[in-house]
Amino acid sequence: MSQFRVKPTLCQIDSCKAFCEQFEVGKGDLILTNPTYFEGFFDGCADGATVVFLKKYGKGEPTDLMVEALYQDIKDLEYKRVIAIGGGSIIDIAKIIAQETISPVVDLFEKKIPTKKTKELIIIPTTCGTGSEVTSVSVIELTVRGTKLGLQTDEEFADYAVLIPELLEKLPFRFFATSSIDALIHAIESYLSPKANPFTEMFSVEAIKLILHGYQEIVAHGEAARNEHIKEFLLASTYAGIAFGNAGCAAVHAMSMPFSGTYHVPHGEANYVVFTEVFKVYNRLAPDGKIRILNELLTSIVGGDGSDVYERLETLLSAILPKKTLKEYGVKEEELAVFTENVMTKQGRLTANNYTPLSKEEVYGIYQNLYG
Questions:
Q1: How far apart are CA 231 and CA 44, in angstroms?
Q2: Does Oxidoreductase show up as a keyword for this record (predicted)?
Q3: Does domain 9-168 have CATH number 2.60.40.2100?
């Protein structure tokens, strides 16, 4: 049985201009991006390519409606490569439009129609969080179903994942914070996954170290300090993507899905809300398992004697991005039961990777503790 794969060819390139030259970007390429990235970094070096701006189809997290509207505009175009330049929304949609059959997208995500990639796919991340450039997962909100759903298939792997640090120069600090915290969660959840192995653990541990040490530098020296470490954060995001692409994410992602889908909270931010509370419950239920090793690693970075490791971790993260309660997002208390039911019945792809099983009562209890 396969334990570890990195399907895309990984490339580190110093500038967007150098990328266009090396990959001979032009006619036959469909570039999916947004004006900030294209006009700031690629305008003038991608002549002949068809450029599509995702913002035309909506803002925020990707939805089935956005994909269907985009499909109507590109279905008659001729292109051989899809080049995604952006964050999670752009990357997730690019993985879909590289497929032979795109619409109806709901049927694609509910596996009523097969995936078959017929376009070469190049992914260039502009955040340091999703890790999607190296995974075979895309997540969209299915508005007709009232929830987010993930699709995971080998056909969604990119052919090339290209890391260009200069693209993160214009990333607002809040987006840097939510995306890098998301990468941290990818690394930590995949480390405890039952599918983890020595190969994935190596990438998880290195990502954890790079991100937390980077946060400590930012707390000590101010927000501008991130620019000195942006290459490390981008690398950490890819490391975490490699780890969770092989070992999977778990309850944190599962519990954030219905909350994020209902209240349109960005993916990384929603994961952050749920994160430490899930791990406190893990620690209570199975303190003598692998989580003990994780706690030792975290304690070596955030300090203390280990008894308050998640409180110390939360203090560090809160200095980067203050955390809100579910109530502050507008969540109604009666919705907690609905979220819980969604986790137990629709998020099995994720909960199968839980460090230790969580009952319906435990999931509901976590939501209660997060409610505020």
A1: 25
A2: yes
A3: no
3-state helix, strand, coil in the chain (%, to 5): 55, 10, 30
Residue 27 has pLDDT above 90, yes or no: yes
Question: Do 370 and 256 form a contact (C-beta atoms < 8 A)?
Answer: no
**pLDDT tens string 170-228:** 789 999 999 999 999 999 999 999 999 999 999 999 999 999 999 999 999 999 999 99
Question: How are beta strands 147-152 and 137-142 bridged, if at all?
Answer: antiparallel
Closest residue by Cα to residue 313 from 187, 199, 195? 187
Q: Which two tokens stand for residue 234?
A: 């981008």
Q: Is 129 in contact with 184 (CB distance < 8 Å)?
A: no
Closest to 81 (Cα-Cα) out of 121, 21, 45: 121
Are residues 146 and 156 in contact, defined by beta-carbon separation less than 8 angstroms? no
CATH classification for the domain delimited by 173-371, as one of 1.20.1090.10, 3.40.190.10, 1.10.150.130, 3.30.1360.120: 1.20.1090.10
**CB-based contact 125:132 (threshold 8 Å):** yes
* Residues in CB range of 28: below 8 A, 6 or more apart: 49, 78, 79, 80, 81
Averaged over 238-263, what is the pLDDT? 95
Q: What is d(CA 54, CA 31) in angstroms, rounded to the nearest whole number?
A: 10
pTM here? 0.91
DSSP character at residue 232: H
Scanning 264-334, the segments in alpha helix (DSSP H) are: 267-285, 291-302, 309-320
- Which residue, 41, 63, 44, is CA-closest to 54? 63
Residues of the chain with CATH 1.20.1090.10: 173-371
pLDDT at 1: 59
* Residue 179: its H or E element: helix 173-192
